[in-house]
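Write out the 3D structure for:
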Amino acid sequence: MAETEAAKQPKILSFSCARPTVAEIDLGALVANYRALRALAKDAEFMAIVKADAYGHGAVEVSHALAREGCSHFGVATLGEAKELRASGLEERIYLMGGFFAQEAPELVELDIVPLVADAAALAVLDSAAALRSSRFPIHLKLDTGATRLGITATDLPDAVEALKRCRHLEVEGVCTLLASAADPSSPVTQAQLGAFAEGVGMLRKAGFAPRFLHVANSAATVLRADAHFNMIRVGLALYGLPPVPAVINTVKLTPVMTFRTRLLQVKRVAAGTGVSYGHTFVTSRPSVIGVLPVGYADGYRRGLQHGGQVLIRGRRAPVVGAVCMDLTMVDLTDVPGAAAGDPVVLWGGSGEDAISAIDVAHQVGTISYELLCTVGRRVPRVYRD
């Protein structure tokens, strides 16, 4: 390999394997996004949301990279995700956002995982589990202010307050809620929720509790609603370089962190009238060059991409043709001169001066970028570069 070509190759910080289908994670882009978003709320603590394996990017590697940048708060959805981070040596605060069952309470306390408590019935269980601690165990109360998801409703909050007064080993360190319509900065729903949140916090303070952290803002609200910052923000999708709504990119520069890539496995010339893949849903209308890619829906490359999907090869866009299979995908290379087995292929991400956004790919298959990133398969190695 020529020296100039070698210089362009990413520095590998994690494992690679013979199969060329990989999700390349740019930790430099991650850190740049963190810094840009952090600057929007300088007076607030920053909670990096790393649930669902950091939206498919690799929770352990992402969390440690951000911890080196000074991030000290990390949000996960399950106890298993929290245990993985603790086992990796992450000593920073970890918050369990997705609820928990009674039998998990002792392990939460043992591992010092801060739970977002969404049900008053969980308080006594946690208080009992924390009885042997030398200090009070911190919890954050999650209020349901209108999203109708996990959370304590305004109707149930008085009972929760009374239950808290009976807890001798718990500290109400924080209060939070989920905004249902943060993507619309002028939404009356958001205004109503912020009002309900203020009332809930006021009730808790009147009862003698002094929460240290108030957090409401997700990625969209972090960028679009400064009045929702309070003193902690929770950032997920934007951290990975994708705007939750287009308006976000008018305020902050974000760089996609993941590039989903593979290489051409086989190239073949076929006659006009040749059917391609299962069911012959595509038939060539001219003598064509068909390429076979070693990626399929088991890897997270969705079946719906047979209708309008594109990949980048040799600086050109090539359409996906025929049914996307479990392990293989076919593309039309007729208009990509010189394409050969082994050529790099970008499924989403940048290549030269062109890029295919994961947001656009998600729209093509009728989903959202969150889901697309999270469903990149476990058999796809994550390869890290700085």
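The first strand starts at residue 22 and ends at 26.
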